[in-house]
Each structure stands twice: as C-alpha cells, then as structure tokens.
Specification:
The protein has 148 residues and is an alpha+beta fold. It contains six helices and six strands; from the N terminus they run H-E-E-H-E-H-E-E-H-H-H-E. The protein has helices at residues 5-30, 49-54, 70-74, 103-116, 120-124, 137-141, and strands at 33-36, 42-46, 59-65, 81-87, 93-99, 145-146. It starts with a helix and ends with a strand.
Amino acid sequence: MIMNSMAVSSLRESHIGIEARMMASAVALVGTVARGVVDPPLGRVGMIESQARATGRPLLGAQRPMSRVGRAIEKDETQGLMKVTVDAETHKIMGAAFLGTGGDEAIHGIVDIMNAGAPYTVLQRDMPIHPTVSELIPTMLGELEPIR
C-alpha cells in the first residue's frame, strides 16, 4: 500500500493522540508514568525513592545493575540499572525506574501490577519469557531490603 505524506502524517498524529489519552489514563491510575527518549532507554512509574520516603511509610527497595541482566549483557548494553520501591506493610509497589536496554518496555510489568492494586509478590512469582530484561524483575523483587 502506498501512502502519501499527508496520510502518513495524519496517521502519525492519530497515534500520538491515542498515546496521549492512554498516558492520561495511566497517570490517573498510578501517578507518574514516563518514558524517556534517551540512550539508554528509561521507563519510570510512580514515586521516586525520595517521594516514597517523604510519605513516612516503611519501605523496601531493590536495584539491579544492567551489568547483571542477561539480555543487557547479550546485547553488550550494560549501562544503567533497574530500581523498585515497595511499601513494606502493604507490599504494593510505590515506584520503579528502569534505565537501560529494554527499560522502556520492561516497566510495563510494574505499571500493570500497580494498576491492578496487586502486591509485588504477584510479579515476584511471575515467569517472564527468556531472554528479556523483564525476566530479572522477579529476581530483583526477591532481593528487597528495608530502606533506612
């Protein structure tokens, strides 16, 4: 199918509009959802650690450098890290940021759990497909420690 530049431009604009509406819906459910157009890619949702600390809630946290993520090693793109903050009492994820290869896609598992109102343990027991960046999220959640 051949499309002229006006049709392509119109199609692109409609996708941007749809994406903006979807982003607004996601923000209403979980707060801040962000995808950074940077290299390496960034995906972020919810609170950053300092915001979570400001709530006064007891917190758990974990992080995993991309140098310990198989897919990142395989692609020779080991810059960055994955980080998550959890409410220690409710076990709900308060926020996460994934900076590195696939981080802008892997964050969606966190977004889904937050939107569902489910505890992190649901995702911790998940079995993502190998090899992906997402496959290390359950491992990282198993390494949660109190944030002091």
